[in-house]
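Note on ligand handling. Small-molecule inputs were canonicalized before submission; formal charges were left as drawn, and no protonation-state enumeration was performed. Where a ligand contained multiple stereocentres, the stereochemistry in the source SMILES was retained. For adenosine-5'-triphosphate, this procedure yielded the string shown in the input block below.
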Amino acid sequence: MQNKICIIFNPAARGEKAKHLLSKLYTLVGDVPIKVSQYPGDAEAKTEWAIEQGYDLIVAAGGDGTINEVVNGFNGREVILGVIPLGTINVFAMELGLPRSIEKAWATILQGNIRAIDFPKANDQHFVQLAGVGLDAKVLQLTHWNVRKTLGPLSYLFTVAYLLKETQPSLQITLEEGSRLSGSFLLIGNGRYYGGPFAVFPKARLDDGLLDGYLFSRVSSTVLIKYWLRSFMGGLYDEEESEGEVIRFQSRSFVVQSKEEVPVELDGDFYGHTPVSFSCEPQKLKVIVP
Ligand SMILES: Nc1ncnc2c1ncn2[C@@H]1O[C@H](COP(=O)(O)OP(=O)(O)OP(=O)(O)O)[C@@H](O)[C@H]1O
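Structure output:
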């Protein structure tokens, strides 16, 4: 491997359990530098610093939020992303088929097999795997960090149950080719998986130059359970039966607007509010895969 590697490590990943893996990582990687993120946003700053120092293979050691910060530090430079999955769910690592063990993930990085994948954006902020407008972003916003730390992914279910009783927002989506759609909750996928090994977007490919959208007209517990079960079974869905409940689309770019401010999440972290423009640069991001 000819590249100059720098590792960006997030001790707060996996509900702060990742911090216990730092010494193991030091032993494993020898004299490869490890920069420890000190606060939310610092992984992005440390990535920018590393690139300025001449490192051209930046390894995100953390979960999806850490990867998101690292790629946002690339700023259009020709660098390669490596991943050591140390997060709670690690959806992007699952999508790439990366091994979960630290040792195997590091061995994969040293082998240096590179894949070029699409690099999506929401306004000026990049993401790698998924985004959401409406329910899931609000859930992330409202579920307290301490509850997440204690209960893990289960904590979100309580917030979902609470939010389903509230009035649902009204989203207007304008696709690149001009057609308009409306609904209350939008899920966006660069790859197939969302929230775990659930193929919510069975037709999505990381390198097809398109974003996949799933727009729910109205969300209820029945609708959520139905689609979750289907995605769990590998994306078995019935086009006819889904009509009215959900609209699926694929597009290179689209705009989401709403009368009220609706929250937006990127790669599982709260990002901001509507309006938001989504776009995708085809095969722009280089990432190491098995
Ligand atoms: N030193 C730090 N202290 C607190 N938070 C941090 C620190 N460094 C980074 N963060 C934040 O930690 C959050 C969680 O990180 P990450 O998403 O990587 O882990 P995770 O939630 O366990 O994984 P996943 O999203 O794959 O389930 C990110 O939003 C990131 O901004």
